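Quick one:
INPUT:
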């Protein structure tokens, strides 16, 4: 009985860690995408102002 509880506990902890890490990775990806969009946006505005693609 105790063995079963231990196994279940281990499984639960592993799945929890997996979910947390996935969420963390997802947040990191979102952050990077947001940063990338900001950079692209700034670049695009800069290009519109200067109308020179080489400046980017």
């Amino acid at each position: 009985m105790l063995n079963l509880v231990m196994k279940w506990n281990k499984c639960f902890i592993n799945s929890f860690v997996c979910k947390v890490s996935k969420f963390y990775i997802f947040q990191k990806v979102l952050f990077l995408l947001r940063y990338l969009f900001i950079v692209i946006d700034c670049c695009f505005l800069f290009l519109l102002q200067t109308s020179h693609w080489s400046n980017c």
